Amino acid sequence: MIMIEYSSTRLCFKADVIEPLGANDSFMVHTPKGTFMFTKADFYRVFSNVVKTESYQKAGWYSYSSLPKKAMPFLISASVTDNVPVVADSPKDLVGDEIREKIKEIGMLWRQSENNPTVDEEVLKKWEQMIEDWVVDKNMPLIVRKETHKKGQSFIHPSGREIIIADNSFAIWIFSRVLKGEVFTLARMKELLQQNQLPMMFVSAKKYAEAKYSKTLGTNPLADWKLCHIERVGFNTKKSIYDLDISVIQDHFRKYANPNNMFVLPKEIGALGEIESFISAQKIWSDILKKH
Questions:
Q1: Total of domains in the chain
Q2: Do 273 and 210 fall into the same domain?
Q3: Which of 12, 164, 186, 286 has a CA that sits 20 to 30 A from residue 45's CA?
Q4: Could you write out the DSSP letters of every residue in the chain?
Q5: Domain ranges, residue 21
């Protein structure tokens, strides 16, 4: 399960952080009033009114001017600065451009580091083409990272396309193959799907008993690394997958499964993979590859 944390001058819910998470993934908010921890499922259950607000939907955040009582069960540590006054309505920029530039520089250092696993450009191009062929082939199911409490299950979208629900296992499997220089044809991927040999979940559990695609990742081939995506793969909507336009799902699959949209970090600094200024340095490299 994923855990993400951030700081805010008040209890603030950030859509770009929360929406990509799975239902059982957690996020922690450090505020002057204390530290609060929620799972995404908790947030949607207790703060369903927040999700519907224009501020959350369009601006991408919602903050409370005073702590609501319903937040208190999620308080995991009280702050010694409990009397800090509430400040502005919108989140302040507590980082600043200078620090962001330094983080971007660190991103470039990692991009050029000898410890950054080498990825063969030709292998990447072949995978990218295979993924695009997959999207075009209406007989191939599309794999999505959403509603992950239904991992391994599939359904037929109104467009007629089969949709498979997964966690990040499939993306991890792909990148581990890329690092080995392995390339798969679309026909081979279709065979692996039919044989239930493509991982859709980290571990099996009773709650996934209805899974049609029950292959687990097993021993994590990227155990020392955190897999990150350059362009975020979250749908940023609470609509069910069934109600999303098929073009939106296709775009999600491209970003989720294309290794050109992936990079890895040592787990020790894995949190950097959630910071936009760091990610931008990886995006520069991805754009360079696409031009060649």
A1: 2
A2: yes
A3: 164
A4: --EEEEE-SS-EEEHHHHTTS-TT-EEEEEETTEEEEEEHHHHHHH-HHHHTSHIIIIISEEE-SS--GGGGGGEEEE-TTTTPPP--SSPP--S-HHHHHHHHHHHHHHHH-TTSPP--HHHHHHHHHHHHHHHH-TTSPEEE-SSGGGTT-EEE-TTS-EEEE--SHHHHHHHHHHHTT----HHHHHHHHHTT-S--BSS--GGGTT-SS--B--S-TTTTEEEEESS-----S-S-GGGS-HHHHHHHHHHHH-GGGEEEEEGGGGGGGG-HHHHHHHHHHHHHHHH-
A5: 3-94
